[in-house]
Amino acid sequence: MGYEKDHAAENFIVKLIAEELQSDPFGRKMCTRFPPEPNGYLHIGSAYAIHTNYSVSQRFNGTFHLRFDDTNPLKEDIEYVNAIIDDIRWLGYDPGEYIYYGSDYSNEIFEAAVTLIKQGKAYVCELSPEEMTAYRGTLTEPGQNSPYRNRSAEENLELFMSMKKGVYPASSKVLRAKIDMASPNINLRDPVLYRIIHAEHYRTGSDWCIYPMYDFAHPIQDMIEGITYSLCSIEFKDHRPLYDWVLRELKIEEPPRQREFGRLSLTGVVTSKRFLRQLVAGEYVDGWDDPRLPTIRGLRRRGFTPESIRSFIEEIGSIRTQSTVHISLLDHCLRQDLKEKTVSVMAVLQPLKVVITNYPEHETEMLTIENNSENEALGKREVPFSGTIYIERDDFMEQPPKGFHRLSPGAEVRLKGAYFIRCEDVIKDPVTGEVTELRCTYDPETKSGSGFTGRKVKGTIHWVTAAHAIQADVHLYESLLLNHDIPDDDSGDWADVINPGSLVAIPGALLEPYVQDVRPEQRFQFFRHGYFSVDGKLATNEKLVFNRIVPLKDSWGKSLK
User: Fold this and answer.
1) What is the DSSP pairing of strand 523-526 with strand 343-345?
2) Whether 222 contacts 232, CB under 8 Å
3) Among 39, 31, 41, which Cα is nearest to 66's?
4) Catalytic residue among 195, 263, 302, 406
């Protein structure tokens, strides 16, 4: 095929494949695959694996397959299948027509097992699961042969056929490969190839009651589809000898090759599907699409863009081992993607009423404000202004410390896109002493864009007009876990490690009327607060709900978390 080794800076997987392809080991096009089990939703680690397989296929002008590893009817569901397809397309790794299901190869996998039985390479074993574990040995001690290991091929074939017919109860018998119980690689100590499961399958119904193990089905499925490279995460490295053994014993010419890359984890988030399932089942989170989870569904609902996720993965590059990346890199990629895409609007999360006493009563004027200071192409908008507005409560202090450049008694600030105002009086609740209203005056000569060159002010604050404000609920997020801890047992009890401040729901936030007709997942920058997205699950025609995707880098974004 003549692939050139001209990419010295390429990632190690591409380098490795380019070197191997010099000997033309395949008489077919490059073909990779991503094989998710449809028993849950994709997460950010899945996206890394998808990207690795997809990008390699593109690099060598090949094809990329999505194949569902659906050989366990006890856990799988069409709901997950549809979600996985949708998420992969949303990410930008569309497999097009190349969508396959492992269950469609049931006959071929069964015939492969029969071939191994006839060759004396597989046998039916009746050890219980506990006995099989005991016979398996340890990392330092060899295993023991099963007492059923030396059955004849004829007897094994008869038993296997009876397994297929549903004669035996679940877990009473398995089909095992006959390899080497003394192998230093435990995966080669007569691994299970088939087990009995009496359950309806979401695609094949009750056609089968025996199902292959992934390590057996995987290489056969790859062979059937013409896969050239099975790119797996690093935990499958010790499984590679079994992958090769299956293909070798079946005498497959030009067999696909398994190669491994590092597994991606993020600080402060759970990327184990088992743990994610515990969080969902225990109702510690609001489903698989909870914005605090690193599932693709959760990231989408929170407001992340596919471009930012792809950029994040490309920034990481190819990793060889288990690697943990700080989540701030994902946030950075999101900011870089959105900074020139989004309209910056004013949103007051903790409103404080301001009455401008010298502004003409009952008058409203329209002020022109730019939509994005970094992208003129996004244009400008008209924002209503009148004598009663709301500002952020944190933008006022009665006794401000040194360096506080916002509003305080006698101090002057600029209202974003509007005028200078000066605080003249502070109204308080007579019982609690809480500040309930500010009385201010404005200087009509200081209108933004008017060419005013007089006195300067150091602070600019945002605002919304009382008569035109749109009310919304706003959700702010922190890490789901306290100190990034995960329970060290399998109890599923997360109560002590969940961060109680991971979700802060703020009702009654006020936004300028520009957001009145938003659509689900539409994104904005809220001036000084960060980037936000409409929550497609919770927002309705009657109530807007915004999720903060990520705060701004500056200290204000951090202080308002």
Assistant:
1) parallel
2) no
3) 31
4) 263
Catalytic site residue from 195, 273, 310, 548? 273
Q: Who contacts 216 (Cβ-Cβ below 8 Å, separation ≥6)? A: 109, 112, 113, 177, 191, 193, 194, 246
Residue 489 has a pLDDT of: 61
Determine the topology of domain 264-338 in CATH: Glutamyl-tRNA Synthetase; domain 2 (1.10.1160)
Residues with Cβ < 8 Å from 55, sequence gap 6 or more?
none
Q: What is the pLDDT of residue 414?
A: 96
The 10s digit of each residue's pLDDT in 285-331 is 999 999 999 999 999 999 999 999 999 999 988 787 777 888 899 99
Query: Please, is 207 exposed, middle or buried when counting C-beta atoms within 10 Å of its C-beta (0-12, 13-18, 19+)?
Result: exposed
For residue 7, pLDDT beyond 70: no
Spatial separation of the C-alpha atoms in residues 526 and 519, rounded to whole Å: 16
Find out whether 100 and 67 touch, Cβ atoms under 8 Å.
yes
| Active-site residue (options: 20, 37, 365, 437) | 37
CATH number of 343-559: 2.40.240.10
How confident is the model over 19-37, as a mean pLDDT?
A: 93
Q: How far is CA 385 from CA 155, 308, 357, 472, 512, in A?
A: 88, 35, 14, 20, 10
Tell which residue, 372, 348, 327, has the closest CA to residue 524: 372
Q: CATH topology for 12-261? A: Rossmann fold (3.40.50)
Percent of the chain past pLDDT 70, that is, above it, reads 95
pLDDT at 558 over 90: no
Please confirm, yes or no, whether 37 is among the known catalytic residues.
Answer: yes
